[in-house]
Specification:
alpha/beta; Rossmann fold; eight-stranded mixed beta sheet; 12 helices; binds zinc ion
Length: 367
């Protein structure tokens, strides 16, 4: 029974909620879960990535406002509630040496300021479960990494009555997840396209898969039914997503057959779990009042002040240079498309450092 449960998804920019875990949120909404998406920044430093809209003066005049309208449309399509944390997009620094981050941006805000803002939203919405990105941010955009840092910091503080006492009544969400574009998903979609004799949009991702640390996927949420809703939400971010781009190259029914789940990595759990699992709320009391009581109770803390957890994600294994080279050799001969980073789904396309291989920054493997 999901009725009345509350799920919060913390994202960096408007459109990330539609490219990462969107079908999961749509599914839970359909089951009666209240879902709140938090966008830490307004995506103000984004570029227009849809070739059909690139020179539209109405868009370039005030991209931030256009993105607010796009976000509102996507929220309606997904059926989620949405709130802005109100911080300013840090942009993706480019050049060698890298320029400093722009003054006043999200990634440079003092951690107490960003944490308090999110603690306030957590204590008001009172989620039982939170999703965010892993410690690499899914890929190393300063806002994505900071989204991870702030979410973990706010998760730690939200249930502590001595932390930010003016930011609401303490509330301790019981589980935190990292949303993932797993290697298994990319492989399955890639192979399904090749089996059909069609061009795979994942060649470049495949090439870089083994270079990423392997994540431990703990949770597969069945949500294939909502892939169409996810695509509609993505298309609502019209300035950020090319409707003829790679996002939409794998036919819906192929995706639904080849990989009908979205993947998550359980980061922290205060309740007992039985892994792998297929529900973000697994382990929580089925009775809503009991689940709420659990979140109102102050967790035990270790000497560092961390809530004492029943489960904590292991740190990912780094691949050795030899392991990576052996794998990359298989793919180097293949033609690598240049559009892949578009799959990332927002404003950071084609901003690799000079001399850097496609996907070295992880963009090609994150979406
Ligand atoms: Zn983003």
């Amino acid at each position: 029974m999901s009725e009345g449960r509350r799920l919060m998804a913390v994202h960096a920019h408007p459109d990330d909620e539609s490219s990462k875990g969107a079908a999961t949120t749509a599914k839970y909404v359909a089951e009666g879960v209240e879902v709140m998406v938090v966008s830490c920044t307004g995506g103000e430093r984004g570029d227009v990535l849809n070739p059909k809209l690139i020179d539209d003066p109405d868009i370039t005049r005030d991209l931030a406002e256009v993105r607010r309208r796009e976000m509102a449309r996507a929220a309606k399509i997904l059926g989620i509630r949405h709130t802005w944390l109100g911080f300013v997009d840090s942009g993706l620094p480019e050049g060698d040496p890298l320029p400093p981050l722009p003054e006043g941006c999200f990634a440079l805000e003092p951690i107490e300021v960003t944490t308090e803002a999110l603690v306030r939203v957590i204590r008001e919405f009172r989620p039982h479960v939170i999703t965010t990105y892993d410690e690499n941010g899914g890929y190393p955009h300063p806002d994505h990494i900071m989204t991870h840092v702030v979410t973990m910091s706010a998760w730690r503080a939200a249930g502590d009555p001595t932390a930010y006492p003016h930011a609401g009544e303490p509330w301790q969400p019981q589980k935190v997840y990292y949303s993932a574009w797993s290697a298994a998903r990319i492989r399955a979609l890639h192979e399904a396209m090749l089996e059909l004799g069609q061009e795979s949009p994942y060649v470049e991702w495949m090439q870089n898969l083994d270079k990423r640390p392997e994540r431990t996927i703990t949770t597969h949420v069945e949500c294939a039914e909502y892939y169409g809703v996810r695509d509609d939400a993505l298309r609502a971010h019209a300035t950020q997503v090319d409707p003829d781009g790679n996002w939409f190259r794998v036919p819906l029914e192929v995706q639904q057959r080849a990989y009908p789940v979205e993947d998550y990595e359980l980061a922290r759990s205060l309740v007992g779990v039985d892994l792998p699992e297929d529900d973000l709320f697994a382990g929580l009391p089925t009775d809503l009042t009991e689940a709420d009581q659990l979140c109102r109770r102050e967790p035990e803390r270790d000497p560092e002040g961390e809530p004492v957890v029943v489960f904590r994600a292991p740190l990912p294994q780094e691949r050795t240079e030899e392991e990576y080279s052996a794998h990359a050799a298989e793919y180097d001969a293949q033609e690598v498309g240049d559009e892949m980073t578009e799959v990332e789904g927002h404003h950071d396309r084609d901003r690799r450092q000079p001399g850097q291989r496609a996907g070295d920054d992880g963009t090609a493997a994150s979406a």
